[in-house]
Amino acid sequence: MIKQLDLSEQYKKLNVEILDRVKQVFETQQFVMGNFVGEFEKACADYLDAKHAISVASGSDALLIALLSIGIQKGDKVITTPFTFFATASAITRLGGIPLFVDIEPETFNISVPAIEQALKKNRGVKAILPVHLYGRSADMEGIMKLAKKFRVRVVEDAAQAFGARSRYNNEYRKAGTIGDIGCFSFYPTKNLGGAGDGGMMVTNNDKLAALLKMLRAHGSPERYVHKYHGINSRLDALQAVVLSVKLNHIEQWNHTRMELARRYNDLFSGAGLTGSITCPDVPDDLTHIVHQYTVRIKNRDGIRQALKEDGIGTEVYYPIPLHLQPVFKYLGYKKGSLKQTELAAKEVLSLPLYPEMTVEQQVQVVDSFKKIQESGFKTKNSK
Ligand SMILES: *Cc1c(COP(=O)(O)O)cnc(C)c1O
């Protein structure tokens, strides 16, 4: 049995250190904000090379507060991708904004820059672009920032899956999340930097926005019992901060290991002669894809997924229903067939087991299982 994600080996390695830090939190009884959270924010800002890092209770809250801080309100349009987790778009609609979903690039699964440009030309009232660095691969920030400057719109990056990934920008590399006005991260346990519960972070290089973000996460309060804005209550627990501080020391290594594992999968699939039917992701050397998910494309995905499951291989589909076709967004008026690359990707993507502690033998077993299914003629197609 190989799970799609197994964090038990990681915990075996880190548990002494983590439990020691957890004990410190209990001993000081400093559960909310305070030094532990401050230290983690500083360490995050240093690692990401961002001027400010402001923690919150989840990645969803990070997105919501970020959009609130740039003034998104009723009727404002925000261009985003429909091929992402629900929270990306619900942050927009929660504020009364209107998501303008545009199609993705089929190779990277990220938002298409030409499609953004079209939407900017066609629509009035666009206030921001909200790209997602899906599966740990940086969106084309160079192209996105060029359009943002030309059309004078803000950029909020959803970097929930891309902690430590690099984005190419102005002939250099920066950490994903630090190029737009604000970058948002999630520390949900399954993320590549994951806590022991919920958590999130907003980063920015803009001093004014940083001050506003800090107020907005604390009921819009610049000082105790003075409330200047309609904010929310969204804080990172000290317990999460210490767990994440321990893990942050390993993130660079883990991301490198993810890339190595992905390349090994690619070699194993091509060695097994399977790359005709399975499209593997390319993994460049420059850390622009840290393989938060190792996601292949495959026809008859659901049948194969079922066969893999019967063979003890866990997989996931991120995401089976594009956001423009979600029931809750029906009022936005998108039709089936309106965003073709996204809809095709939703039918074909499959995320295979990948986590830094995974062994060669386990990867071989996954690929062997594909081979077995292939040789059986994919007959799962007509079963049941
Ligand atoms: C996980 C995730 C979020 C939401 O983060 P939570 O911490 O679960 O609220 C937002 N966007 C993307 C792309 C994600 O993967």
How do the strands of the widest beta sheet line up side by side? Answer: 1-9-8-5-4-2-3
CATH superfamily of the largest domain: Type I PLP-dependent aspartate aminotransferase-like (Major domain)
- Classify the fold: give the CATH topology of the largest domain: Aspartate Aminotransferase, domain 2
Name of the level-1 CATH class of the largest domain: Alpha Beta
Order of helices and strands: HHEHEHEHEHEEEEEHHHEEHHEH
Look at the helices and sheets and give the structural class.
Answer: alpha/beta
Into which percentage range does the β-strand content fall?
A: 5-15%
**What are the distinct ligands in this entry?**
pyridoxal-5'-phosphate
- Fraction of residues in H or I helices: 40-55%
Major sheet description: 7 strands, mixed
Number of domains: 2
The low-pLDDT segments are 380-384
Report on the structure:
With 384 residues, the protein is α/β, with parallel strands linked by helices. It folds into 2 domains: 8-248, Aspartate Aminotransferase, domain 2; 251-382, Aspartate Aminotransferase, domain 1 (Alpha-Beta Complex). The chain has helices at 8-28, 34-48, 59-69, 86-94, 113-122, 141-151, 207-216, 238-248, 251-271, 301-310, 340-348, 360-375, and strands spanning 52-56, 77-80, 98-101, 126-130, 154-158, 166-169, 172-175, 182-186, 200-204, 278-279, 294-298, 349-352. The strands form 3 sheets. It has a 7-stranded mixed sheet, with helices on both faces. Strand 2 (77-80), helix 4 (86-94) and strand 3 form a beta-alpha-beta unit. It is globular and about 70 Å long. The protein starts with 7 loop residues before the first helix and ends in a 9-residue tail after the last helix. Residues 380-384 have low confidence and may be disordered. Pyridoxal-5'-phosphate binds at residues 58-60, 84-85, 87-88, 132, 158, 160-161, 186, 188, 198, 200. Pyridoxal-5'-phosphate (PLP) binds at residues 58-60, 84-85, 87-88, 132, 158, 160-161, 186, 188, 198, 200.
